[in-house]
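Methods — Computational structure assignment.
A single polypeptide chain was analysed. Its primary sequence is given first, followed by the predicted tertiary structure written as structure tokens.
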Amino acid sequence: MSLAMDAPNVLVTGGAGYIGSHACKVLSQAGYRPVTFDNLSTGWAAAVKFGPLVQADLLDRAAIDAAFAQYSPVAVMHFAALSQVGEASRDPGLYWRNNVGGALNLIEAMVAAGCRDMIFSSTCATYGDHDGVVLDEQTPQLPLNAYGASKRAIEDILRDFGKSHALNSVIFRYFNVAGADPDAEVGEWHRPETHLIPIMIEAAAGTRDALVINGNDYPTHDGTCIRDYVHVMDLVQAHVLGLEWLRAGKQSRVFNLGTGVGFSVAEVIRQCRAGTGHRVPHSFGPRREGDAAALVSGSRRAIEELGWVPKRSSLKQMIEDAWRWHQTGGYSG
């Protein structure tokens, strides 16, 4: 898509990653110019298709300042973060340094540049485990690992800067993001892959030996973890609505993004077989440290206040879109 040179710039940290690249696509469709800021440690240069790339690290404050000086963004969408639960449990210092340190650099650079609107990618992992209760924005935040704790800390930083520097923010607490761009221009392509649905698809396609299910002794109806899955395209559409919310001068706000429906790992496997026509070979392993038994969203606030309408978030649609993307060979194909 060709954008006018005077299209307003939005700085998208982590724009070469899974969710960030989809956000760049919908931003370009909405008339913005997404400027990706990414160190490419987990992202892909091939995913940057909708605007320029600044290859740099958020721990490099001078590089952030230079990006603000060059592009004068009207807002920031902040996706860049380490996000592996197991790694966060093994090496919490890495998560505090990278996620919180990088975010603080970014926020201070925003203030210095006079940019006052941020859409922040947070997580339902800030809530911790609440015994299968539907989680809304008022649920106590009791994270089980350094990943969730680092995201909660950034939320606190944003609130403090809101009071001291009039920094406005929309905070989105995601549940499990799945699916891919229906046009298959961008998709989910982690190496190594750690997310359930792409691992399951690779097992179904025969490009990996088997899916290992992390635990079958949770207090759920079939012993496997329950998660609320939301389509990546629905998720990033909410980010554009959040951007418009802030640009209209509305107050800082926190929103959950999920469907309110939970599926166990075993149920997702059955749906994958039905949706792809391929058996999903799998085995059972030990629980993954720091995992909650069930995480299901209450997203009424986003629906009622933002006007968010998830359109592609059936489990069937998410698996079909992800399957289509994987047939392209991904970014290494």
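Note: The radius of gyration is 19 Å.
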